[in-house]
Structures are given as C-alpha cells and as structure tokens.
Design goal:
By secondary structure, the chain is mostly beta strands. It folds into 3 domains: 20-352, 7 Propeller (Methylamine Dehydrogenase, Chain H); 362-437, Sandwich (Immunoglobulin-like), CATH 2.60.40; 445-678, no CATH class. Strand 43 and strand 44 form a beta hairpin. The radius of gyration is 30 Å and the shape is elongated.
C-alpha cells in the first residue's frame, strides 16, 4: 500500500448568489411571489491523496452489444442500464445484469434511434428511461412501452426520476421544459422555465424534493410544486454545469461538474465547490454515488475512482479500466459494490473497494397459512441487529401493517423482509411465500373469455371485509336465439356457497325505459337459471350456466390494462345508475385514461338490450364523449361461438361529465340529461 500524500489546494473563490422561486400556473396551485435569498458559496479546502489500494474490479462484456450509458438499481434486486452507441441506425437496448453478472438485453419495443438515456426505478415497480422523443417504460420481465404523445417536438429528454406524487418527472434538454408522466402514460409538460436549453439529470431526495442540473446551475421542485433556481445568474461559472447527482450521506445534494469539480448544495441553497485536482484539459468526471461507508464516490474518465468525505478529503483508486472506454455513470448496487457503465465500451464494471462493509444476513421465518380476515405477526431479524421492514409483493392478496400481515383474498402471498443497511452494513433481504386461505375478492369491472369476444360479464363486489367477501352483483351481456343483443341480471348475491364460489340466480326484465325515451319502470320477466362462478384469483374465474362452462378473466382495454393503478379522482369502476330511473343502469371502467361504457336498458318493443361505447380515450380526466353502438347476431351463452356483427355503429352520441369519482351527468343522444352516481348494493 502506498501512503496517502495530502496536497493542499487554494480555496475556491467566494461569491454571492441568489435563490429565485419561479411560479408556474401550469404547475403550482396558487401563484407565489418571487423569493430572493442571498447565499454565499463557502470557501473550502480539499486535500487529495492517491493510493494503490487493493480492490475487486470485474468487467462484464458477455451479452452486451452496445455502449452502456446510464445505470440504476431495479426493484427486482438487479442492475438496469441503457445501451446506445449514439449512431443513427445502430442497436439500442435496455440491459439487465444480476449481481452475479448475468446479462439480459431487451430491445423489442424500442424505436430505432430512440437513444435511451437516463434510467430510474418508478413508483409502479417498473423502470423508466429517457429517450430522444419521449419516455420509455420497461417491466422487470422486459416488456417495453414507449410514450411520445404529449411531448413537444424533439424534447430530447435527459433527466428522469420518480416523484413524490407517484409520477415520473423528467427534463427536456431540447425545449428547456420540465414535465411529468403518470404510470399509465399521461404526459404533462410545463412551460419553458427560461434558463437556457441545457436542463440535465434529476434526482429525488428522501424528503420528496426533486433536484435537477442545468446550465452552470442547480434547480429543485418542492413537493408543493414550486420550482426554485439556485441563482439568477450562473451559480458555478467556468463550465461548472452539474452532471450526475446523488443524495449525500449528509442529506445534501452532491454532483459532478464539467470543470471538473465536485459540487454540493444544501436544501437551503448554500452551494460549495470542491476541486478534485483532475486536469480539465485532459479528463472530466463521470458518475457519483454515496457508498455504504458514508463517503461519496465518483468516476474520472481516465479510469480512476475517487472517494471523498463530506469534509472534502479525496482519495483516488486505480480501477484498471483504460481511459479510452470512458467510464460514464454509476450506482451503488445491492451487494454494496459500485456498478458503472462505459460510454465507449460494451461493458458493465463492478468495483468493490478494499474497505468492504460487513455483510449482514436477514433470517425470515416462514409464517403459517393465514386466512382471509386473519392477521399474523411476522418474525424476521438481521444479523447486524438493525431493524427489519416488510413489504407485500402481492397487495391484492395480502397487505402489511408494520410487522403484521393481513389476509385480503385467497391465493399466494409473497412478503419481502428488508434491512436497508447503513454506513457499516449493505442492504439485505429475505423472501417468504405462503397461502392466504379462504374466499377470493374479485376485481370490479369487465370480464370476458378471450376466445369469445363480443360478449362478457360485468361484476362488482361491495361491502368487503377481512372477515368475508361482501355482496356480488353481476350481469351477463350476450345474444338471444334471434341474434338480438340481450342481458341478464345475476345478483345481488349475499355470501358464498364455499371458498371462492358463488351461486347466483339470473333474471330477465322487460318494458323499461328506452335509450331516448321517458322513464317507465321495468317489470320482472323470468328466471333464467342458476349461474355458478368460481374465482381462482382476483382476476380469473370459471362460470357455469345453462350447461356451458367458460374460463373468464379481467378485460384489458386501456394503457396499462386492468392492473395499472389509476390516478386519484378517476371515476370509480363498477355499477352506476340514476336513482330517479331504477330498472336500467350503466357499467363504467377507466383504464389509463381510456373509458369503456355500457348501458343496460330496453328497446321499443320492451326487450332488454345493451349498448356499448368505447373503449375510447376520455376527453379529459372528468369528461367522456363517445358514440353508442349496437351489436347483434352473436352467440347465445351455451351455443357455438360466432363473432357478433356491428348492427348499428352510430346509435347516437353519449357524454358523461363527471363531477367526482362517484357522480356525474349523462347526456343521451336526444340531449336529455340525467344525474348518475355509483350504485350501492
């Protein structure tokens, strides 16, 4: 080992700065006045040392076919990175590498010349990445979706991070805009913030503040939606533009600069620069990350790694990586090592310093099977003695309250016990999977047999408790022997016959209100037999009726499908009605801003008939405008399948103006309006 040799550098110059709060009516709820705070860039003295410390460096090239750019830790315990040679027509991909070094590339779904860049773990359990024309999303299974609708022309998205509001935030280097995208793909762009066209990378601190780099300056977005810029002029002159950012062990934001210095800014806006001694004429800095040892680690493109204390003491380590591959961005892996990309190399590098942290192990005892409505205390300990937290990987089946697991519906429950680590120990996890026994609570909405499109089911369960599933109300929509669209009511059913099985008596009604007619009460027509439905999961079931057995599942029709979380305030999925017009009703479901509406009413002869509108995009979050359509000549429930025909593609217009998630006004083709609301049964 070579002893560290400190070199004292001259202090960085001291200069006044200002902090400017920018109001943006497209973002903040109320207009705020401009705030100017005088700050000072503190004078600092950094000491540097060079060492030939031993460390473990591993370079992984197998399975990587392009230059690697940005890297992040995924929700699955693997490292995810973007690949792009930056040349038109060359292959681009998203890569995944396990802590053991096994690489998988995913390129299906990426548009040619999309140029994927910064990547982050999203709040929805997926990975989100920047592209030249928008934003991309990749699931842990490798399914890629690109989002370009709602972006300005040539946005050149650069920074990306998960925000405190459950959305993904991004910067646009080509437009000087900041924007956000919901997990289901709804884009909001803010106005040009007016500070040049060099918005850069982003990061979110533990307090929910989003930080971003820009032209020789730093900006932040507080959870209330206010944008702050650190100064009215360059905060860091002479090419001090921030590159990579990280949250430091002291809670401040640390970043690399072009100059090349290390910069720091406190939440209050006090900024400092630390010189690294790296020649600005030969090399620049790459990524930066906080290590488990409580220090900051950064890359130099000549292949060295720098370790820096929050007081400014810097020690360099030789990784053995040649300078011509250009180490670019890095992240702290789940194994306590640093993983970094190579801008001019087809590789991922793992760097474990010699001062490795002590490994800890989480021991997680297998819980007993838990019933619906039952709870059990979980038992997991870490060898470090640090506290363990629990999360549910199957929230539809089981939930977590502290260290208690609650059974919600029958099926497999997977719980992860996590010790987050500290300066002495890296993070550690253990997983247990067990069964939740008892009845299953199905998801509300549209269900179908994918092999028999054109008919299906609408079902909803209400008054659910942990003790038992609640009341089930469902309808079957198909065709009678003449080919006319018809429907049957199957509910309300109070309770199960046994675990996850329900017996419903189906009925038909007649002589009720037509689509555009004045109200008249419907009359009971006939019983249509018993229907049995057995749920195998919250999204799958077996239906037996009229001697025919069908395997049905949730119907996915919008972005993200039926399993995607919907934004707060979205119209609720399930049964709706007009209390002043009993006897007919409506099924409404919204998936990713796309709405499917069906109406159950009567024709001019008094026969039950259904009309459908959509699936079609909503005009906005609270307004749907569409067209009623009528189908016919489909199969009877127990007949041989035949695809229905579109009997009338334009029965008339329909508008639903929602006033809340549970109420609205429906306008019929003749202009007649009726107030509708959620149907409570």
């Amino acid at each position: 080992m070579i002893a560290a040799c400190p070199i004292v550098l001259s202090p960085i110059r001291e200069r006044p700065t200002k902090q400017n709060a920018i109001s943006n009516s497209a973002w903040v709820r109320t207009v705020t006045s401009t705030v100017l705070l005088r700050l000072a860039t503190a004078a600092v003295v950094a000491s540097l040392a060079v060492t030939a410390h031993a460390q473990v460096v591993t370079q992984y090239t197998a399975g990587i076919s392009s230059s690697t750019r940005f890297i992040t830790k995924g929700p699955d315990g693997n490292l995810w990175f973007t690949e792009d040679d930056g040349i038109s027509g060359e292959k681009t991909a998203i890569g995944r590498i396990t802590p053991a070094g096994v690489v998988t590339e995913f390129s299906a779904g990426i548009t040619q010349d999309a140029h994927p860049g910064a990547i982050t773990a999203g709040p929805d359990g997926n990975l989100w990445f920047a592209e030249a024309a928008g934003v991309g999303r990749i699931t842990p299974q490798g399914v890629i979706t690109e989002f370009t609708v709602g972006f300005s022309v040539n946005p050149a998205v650069r920074g990306i991070t998960a925000g405190p509001d459950g959305n993904i935030w991004f910067t646009e280097g080509g437009t000087s805009r900041i924007g956000s995208i919901t997990p289901d793909g709804q884009v909001t762009e803010l106005a040009d913030i007016g500070y040049g066209t060099n918005l850069g990378e982003m990061i979110t601190d533990p307090g929910g503040v989003i930080w971003f780099g820009m032209n020789n300056d730093v900006g932040k977005i507080t959870p209330d939606g206010t944008i702050y810029i650190a100064s009215q002029g360059p905060l860091f002159p002479d090419d001090g533009s921030p590159g990579a950012l990280t949250v430091g062990p002291d809670g401040n934001i640390w970043f690399t600069e072009d100059q090349p210095n290390i910069g720091m800014i406190t939440p209050a806006g006090v900024a400092k620069e630390f010189p690294t001694g790296v020649s600005p004429y030969l090399y620049h800095l790459g990524g930066i990350a906080t290590g488990n040892d409580g220090n900051l680690w950064f890359q130099v493109v000549d292949g060295r790694m720098g370790r820096m204390t929050t007081a400014g003491q810097i020690t360099f380590f030789n990784t053995g990586v040649p300078a011509n591959v250009t180490p670019y961005r890095m992240t702290l892996g789940p194994d306590g090592a640093f993983w970094f990309t190579e801008l001019n190399g087809h590789a991922i590098v793992r760097f474990m310093p010699s001062s490795t942290v002590t490994v800890q192990i989480v021991t997680f005892g297998a819980p007993s099977n838990v019933g619906i409505g039952q709870s059990e205390t979980l038992n997991a300990t870490a060898s470090s003695g640090l506290p363990v937290t629990f999360t549910s990987q199957t929230p539809l089946t089981c939930s977590i309250s502290g260290s208690t697991v609650n059974g919600l519906s029958g099926g497999s429950c997977t719980i992860v016990a996590t010790q987050a680590g500290n300066n002495s120990y890296p993070p550690a996890q253990a997983t247990q999977t067990f069964n939740i026994t008892g009845g299953i609570i199905p998801q509300a909405g549209y269900w179908w047999d994918p092999a028999e499109g054109g008919n299906g089911f609408v079902l909803e369960m209400q008054a659910n408790t942990y003790a038992k599933p609640g009341d089930l109300f469902m309808a079957v929509f198909d065709y009678d022997v003449s080919g006319r669209a018809t429907w049957y009511s199957a509910g309300v059913t109070h309770g199960q016959t046994e675990d996850s099985e329900w017996l419903n008596t189906t009925s038909t009604y007649a002589n009720g209100t037509t689509l555009t007619g004045t109200y008249q009460p419907a009359t009971f027509s006939a019983y249509a037999g018993d229907l049995t439905i057995y749920f195998t999961s919250p999204t799958q079931a077996t239906v037996s009726w009229y001697g025919a057995v069908k395997q049905i599942q949730r119907f996915d029709f919008g972005p993200g499908g039926s399993q995607a979380a919907q934004p707060a305030g979205t119209p609720q999925t399930g049964w709706w009605w007009a209390p002043t017009e009993p006897g007919r009703g409506y099924a409404i479901e919204v998936q990713g801003g796309t709405m499917f509406l069906s109406g159950y009413m009567y024709d001019a002869q008094g026969n039950p008939i259904w009309y459908a509108s959509g699936p079609a995009p909503m005009t906005n979050a609270m307004l749907y405008q569409g067209t009623w359509q009528q189908f016919g000549n489909g199969e009877t429930y127990n007949g041989s399948y035949k695809a229905p025909a579109l009997a009338n593609p334009d029965v008339g217009n329909v508008t639903v103006q929602f006033t809340s998630a549970t109420a609205g006004t429906l306008t019929f083709p003749n202009g007649r309006q009726v107030a509708i609301q959620r149907y409570a049964f």
